[in-house]
Amino acid sequence: MTHATSIPSLDSLIAQVDFNSELQAVEVICKDFHSSIQILDILDQTETVRTGMRRALERTIELTQTTHCTTWIGDLRTLFLLTGDDERWSLQEWLPRLHKAGIRNIALVPPSSVLGSLFFDSIINKTSNINICKVRSLEEAQAWAKEQRN
To answer: Domain of 145?
Structure first.
């Protein structure tokens, strides 16, 4: 991935967020953080993931505004802990703000968990003003994003 030095990225326990200057797209890659989080209480772990993901998604809005890009790429294969509150926040808060910032295309590698995949199917079905393409890999997402520029 190519980085522009003046564009802030995010690299946290949960996700990495960068601007891919070659594709003119914001990229979010969820990390395999489950083995890194040493929290026994599942509610605390869920809150840790929620906070980390929301911070990463907020950064994507900042990067979109800074770069004026129209494509968002998300590799969310390792994302497992999702709730109804996460869905509401995504649909009512984040996606409208992302669209307002200029995103028109999303290439999404959905979570590999069945529940996570169903969660994103629900979001995709309820989103009409952004072109969303579900793909199987980051490379496929990047290829799709490149096609959107042509």
So the answer is: 10-149
24: alpha, beta or left? (left if phi > 0; alpha if psi -120 to 50): left
Query: Do the domain assignments include residue 69?
Result: yes
| Residues 6+ positions from 89 with CB-CB distance below 8 Å | 54
Is residue 2, in this structure, part of any structural domain at all?
Answer: no
Instruction: Using the predicted structure, report yes or no on whether residue 75 has a pLDDT greater than 50.
Output: yes
CATH number at 88 reads: 3.30.750
Domain contains 1: no
DSSP secondary structure string for all residues of 72-126: EEEE-TT-----HHHHHHIIIIIHHHHHHHT--EEEEE--SSHHHHHHHHHHHHT
**Amino acid identity, residue 19?**
F
Q: Tokens at residue 61, please?
A: 């809005």
Q: Which residue has the tokens 């490149």?
A: 146
Q: What pTM does this model have? A: 0.81
Residue 100 lies in a domain: yes
Report the relative pairing of strands 10-11 and 15-20 from DSSP bridges.
antiparallel
pLDDT digits (tens, 9 = 90+) for 107-142: 999 988 887 788 888 888 999 899 999 999 999 999
